[in-house]
Amino acid sequence: MTIPQHARAAFSLRSYTGRPAVDGSDGLPRLYGPEAARPQELFARLRARDGQVSPVMLPGDLPVWLVLGHRANLDVARTPSRFSRDSRRWNLLRAGQVPADWPLRPMVEWEPSVVFSDGEEHERTRAAIVAGLAAENRAGIRRYVKRYTEQLVNLVIERGHADLISEYAERLPMLVMTRLLGLDEAEGPRLADAARDLIRGSDTAVASNELIKQTLVRLIATKKARPGRDFASRLIAHESRLQDSELLSHLRLTLIAANETTANLIANTLERVLTDGRFRAHLAGGQMTLPDALDGVLWDEPPLSTVPGRWATGDTQLGGWRIEGGDMLLLCPGAANVDPEIRPDLSVPVHGNRSHLAFSAGPHRCPGDDLGRAIADTGIDTLMALLPDLRLAVPQAELDWHHVLLSKRLSRLPVEFQARPRVALGSTRGTARRAGAALGAAGGCPVPHGASAPAPTPSSDVWASTA
């Protein structure tokens, strides 16, 4: 594999401080396709060869820098003066070398939002998001999560088996977010499909992005005419006086980021509970709480493996490499969280340690990570209370992981449980139960047909975006 000729002129891969030079004859590893089928193995090879930063190629063989090290990720995230969020700086984009239908273009093309701004403009737009999220009633969010979890469980409870990915993890966050944004909950399924398609960078990603935008344009018009007690109405009314284009960008960001990251967090945590006896035992024995368990999963399997992007404001150096002005960098929490510099022994528990980079760092750190945690925490707690005898329906080795550029996720998580009658909606409200005990029961203890599921504990506030 060789670096495309058009890329060589716009993206010089010269080395500094003794790093091995990479030229066209050596080629660059692709961060997509068969080469990236095992991302952690790829990250480890790149780290061994290149150190904290490595040159790679995105779909279309567009070359970028992949930031692997924990220290380097912090450096990039915390210094917008050197590494801007403004994608209009991208040298390949300015040179007209990024196709209009490039699958990741919807994720990196500049728009007037908190994601692509720095300095005072970033502070202005971020203030509107922070205020809008802060006004969300946490108890109300948990009620929504419990209600939708009960509804989803009732779709499968009488048959005794389910796929916790397609029938739960991929559906719950979008149902909650459509309600919080002020959308009709009936919009949830198709928006969830479009958001997943967009994150995957598929051939239909541009069309999926357009579907989401059209839905949100209608929402903005509706809430301007009839404001409500929802996130969209609060953004419209905020003193920052966001323009329609800004409102659209921020609602789209909130919807997509919250759905994908929270769905992945739920899926990864449930997989760990059902397959890792030590993990489950720590929950059952009280050595860790469910919120601490979520942080353990966020260390090992962050919802987004890579996060585009940053663009160098000028020529600089990072991790021994020369970065030229306009070069694009991808933050890589999937590699940074297992950096040997900070985690020499991956078997040492990190429960409760929140210095992971799953929610990024610096001025663009996720402003709503607590909402994602709340959805995942309460959702898992409620699910395990309703179905305490959940057990994996296939051997662990048969679980299929789907690897895409931005994330690693389970394709399916088939489970079995004893069939029982539908639960009464609201049956989990106001109950008290240790989350650890609920998850500890996942070993497969049967519950008699028709028996009441033990009640869940109110979970702590714990949502993700890439703002």
Structure description:
This protein has 467 residues and is of the alpha+beta class. It is built from 18 helices and 12 strands. It has helices spanning 5-10, 39-50, 70-78, 91-94, 105-108, 119-134, 138-154, 165-169, 172-181, 188-200, 205-225, 231-237, 244-275, 277-284, 290-300, 333-336, 369-386, 435-440; strands at 53-58, 62-67, 83-84, 161-163, 307-312, 316-318, 321-323, 328-331, 391-392, 401-403, 408-410, 414-416. It has a 5-stranded mixed beta sheet with strand order 1-2-8-5-3. Helix 9 (172-181) packs antiparallel against helix 13 (244-275) and helix 13 (244-275) crosses helix 17 (369-386). It is globular. Mean pLDDT is 82; it is low at 1-26 and 430-467.
Quaternary arrangement of the chains shown? single chain
What is the helix tally? Answer: 18
Q: What is the general shape?
A: globular
Q: Using only CA atoms, what is the Rg?
A: 22 Å
For the record, give the distance between the C-alpha atoms at the N and C termini, rounded to a whole number. 35 Å
